[in-house]
Specification:
about 550 residues, alpha+beta, 8-stranded mixed sheet, 6-stranded antiparallel sheet, 13 helices, 22 strands
């Protein structure tokens, strides 16, 4: 009758009213939300036929359960002994009881967050004592509630929150397709591997083909190229944008070039107009590694567009330091239907089928197609077009992402404001440091604030960094600096094979030796920013 085995939970009983008078002949309905404990006590929720006070903590009881429209007050829990129950009135179906108990859980989460987490997250900054991190998570009770909500589903793999995030994130970017994956590095891997598919014909990237990129960046922009067996061709960067020197593109081009794969350095877009024109002229793919630039914009073809949406494929990372977080997580996005299917094929074991998890026969031809040398009609769900991976995300991560996405516009605004405060505050030491500048026709959503020690500045990068770290200010290098100098390149460097350098990497060398950056993330306060300005200025000018 009630869709459950519980004897009391989910049942609406008539109990005496007022509640303080167990012998009262009058009664009113109350919902039992527990079984009797060892003393016979049951937790009840207050029910009224009229919402007598404004509250976000009420749920309308579905029509037909009680004679009049009624509301359950989630924040009114009473403990009564089962002996006072006058009679049973009705039972809730399992779905509405689920809703009631979930919302009660959310109230507990909210109470925990506001009394425990919130005070810790908002600890007072004490200059010289508190640490100024370069990045960190910025969240509130909504992320935690979504996480708990998803965990109660216990779907575990991609599900309703994943579907919601992919749709809403694509809508934010103004792009057709978004495919979630388990990290930004996996996103780069999928973006690259999609372009190796035989389904792309002559445009596919084959082993030995070349991909133009830079060495001054994060290794997983380059790693997929090498791991597949293609050849990265390195060009230099330009200061003060710290992005690709587009004047070297023609020197990097060869008959084997198939793609350009570049990151927007710390949120500063590279010259998308020049790079896109170069790719179009030479029939090359363009992958935008947008992991450090979510929310950055570029004025392209007469309109402002988000970075990551101008190339053939864009990627994002949702690791905690980034513009928004899922803990771990990433996304690959494109406007091309074929590329979207290839990305998801490589993500989902290499399968040919595109059915969502838990779904069958989306194509309507599950047992009526011919593939390879398999028997005709072999189950399409187990046909593999590529040697793929399992790089899916969990729905719990996506649940966090949905709450973070609502905050993303404010995060972007804060990053821009913090970067501007640093840029203006450090103008007095511009003769000692190369300070960053946005690329023309761009509106960066900054990931960090880069500083390069000038020649003859009287200080070294290592001394500045050491002083800042000693004073509680966290710093970072521009990732690999020069990836070619790292141990992962030892064998290739020794043999001189597997890569090509198209031009002198003098600025890449400069960055490796003289550059570092500090944070601008939304969790930083004006006091933190001013403290960084004070310490940098003092140490440089003392």
């Amino acid at each position: 009758m009630y869709g459950m085995k519980s004897k009391y939970t989910g049942i609406i009983f008539k109990i005496p009213f007022p509640f303080t008078d167990p012998d009262s002949p009058k009664g009113r309905p109350a919902l039992a939300i527990s079984e009797p404990d060892e003393y016979g006590d049951i937790a009840f929720l207050f029910i009224t036929t009229k919402q007598t006070r404004v509250s976000a903590h009420t749920l309308d009881i579905p029509a037909g359960i009680l004679p009049f429209p009624s509301h359950i007050h989630l924040d009114k829990i009473f403990l009564f002994n089962r002996k006072i129950i006058q009679k049973k009135i009705a039972g809730l179906n399992i779905d509405f009881l689920d809703k009631v108990l979930r919302n009660l859980t959310f109230l507990d989460v909210n109470r925990y967050f506001n009394n425990i987490k919130k005070p810790r997250l908002r600890a007072t900054f004490i200059p010289g004592q508190s640490r100024v991190n370069y990045a960190g998570r910025v969240y509130d009770e909504k992320e935690v509630i979504n996480l708990v909500d998803s965990s109660l589903d216990f779907w575990l793999t991609s599900g309703r929150y994943t579907n919601r995030f992919e749709k809403e994130f694509a809508g934010f970017l103004g792009i057709k397709y978004c495919s979630l994956t388990n990290s930004g590095s996996s996103a780069n891997l999928l973006a690259f591997m999609a372009l190796t598919s035989p389904k792309l014909g002559e445009r596919r990237i084959k082993k030995g083909d070349e991909v133009i990129t830079v060495a001054a960046g994060f290794p997983t922009t380059v790693a997929p190229i090498i791991q597949y067996g293609a050849i990265p061709v390195f060009v230099d960067i330009k200061l003060p944008t710290y992005n690709i020197d587009c004047s070297q593109l023609e020197d990097a081009l060869s008959g084997k070039t198939k793609a350009v794969m570049l990151a927007h350095t710390l949120g500063n877009p590279f010259d998308l107009k020049k790079v896109r024109e170069f790719c179009h002229k030479n029939n090359l793919w363009l992958i935008e590694d947008n992991c450090d630039a979510l929310g950055s914009r570029y004025f392209y073809d007469g309109t402002w567009r988000y970075t990551g949406t101008i190339g053939d494929i864009g990627t994002s990372s949702f690791y905690p330091p980034h513009h928004m977080t899922m803990g771990e997580g990433g996304a690959v996005y494109t406007n091309d239907t074929q590329l979207k299917r290839l990305i998801e094929s490589f993500r989902d074991w290499g399968r040919d089928c595109w059915c969502a998890s838990g779904r069958d026969n989306t194509c309507g031809k599950r047992f009526s197609q011919q593939f390879g040398e398999l028997p005709f009609g072999y189950d399409h769900k187990y046909v593999y077009s590529h040697f793929g991976y399992n790089l899916k995300i969990t729905d719990m991560q996506a649940a966090i992402g949905c709450a973070q996405l609502e905050k993303l516009p404010q995060f972007i605004k804060a990053r821009k404001a913090n970067w501007k405060r640093l840029r203006e505050g450090l103008a007095a030491i511009e003769d000692r440091f190369v300070l960053p500048e946005p690329t023309p026709d761009s509106d960066p959503s900054w990931f960090g604030f880069l500083l390069t020690v000038r020649e003859g500045a009287g200080v070294t990068r290592d001394k500045v960094v050491g002083y800042l770290e000693k004073n509680g200010i966290q710093t970072r290098m521009l990732f690999a600096g020069n990836l070619l100098k790292h141990p992962c390149f030892d064998e290739m460097r020794a043999s001189g094979t597997g890569f090509r350098i198209a031009a002198d990497l003098k600025n890449t060398e400069l960055v490796m030796n003289n550059t570092f950056w500090v944070g601008v993330y939304p969790g930083m306060t004006e006091k933190m920013m001013d403290y960084m300005i004070e310490k940098l200025t003092y140490f440089t000018l003392k």
